[in-house]
Amino acid sequence: MNTIDLSGKVAAITGGSRGIGRGIAEALLSAGAMVTINGRNQEKGDQAIVDMAAGDRAKFIAGDVTRQSDVENFVQSTIDHFGRIDILVNNAGGSGGFAPVAEMSEEAWQEAAAWILHSAFWGTRIALRDMESRGWGRIINISSVEGKQANKENVSHYITFKHALNGFTKAVAFEYGTKGITSNAISPGAVETDLMKEAGPSAAESAGITYEQFKENYAQDAAIKRLNTVEEVAGMALFLTSDLGAGVTGAILPVDGGSAL
Fold it and tell me: pTM of the predicted model, to two decimals?
């Protein structure tokens, strides 16, 4: 059996101090990679580094991915600190201001665009230049089951930009496939992360249901009749970063318990 060894590789993960990003960071660290994570809260980021107990193989760089300068600083600082970037996980991405299209605010729409789509472009653009110089790289975008369908109310912004993220994933794969660089998206089903706990009640309220009903609806949509876990998503990411995953690119890979329509 092949063992995944990422020794000497450097990974940068947006939104990596908690939730899916944190799970992916821990998986990559366990395989020997050096990792930078980003988030808006310095205190939470510093605590995440302590909790991961990776010593000088992990570093937190504060920043808000809805700001271009923060995303670019995160990726460039990773290169400056570790000397390279081999793996970029565009994990951060969400939305707020849930409402029907006719009532959707400009602010909510633009925030979702930056949070989900623009942030991935800003970071990938810089990372690709460094990866291309060595002829090896892995771009992983964390999409969503909602990037494949449109069967939820009041989340048109989230649905739209997750669909767009999938398109961006495929475009990068096509342009860089001969350069040793793969580009894939992981499409999780519902995972109860800190972000879901924060945004879920508001999304549920906008749909006229409770947060518990909101979660149960996702579970019932799935063949496995439960929510997915952070570890399940992180396992797919680990595979994609490995040499075993070198032949997979331009794919939108579901980790959704069989819930996509």
Answer: 0.93
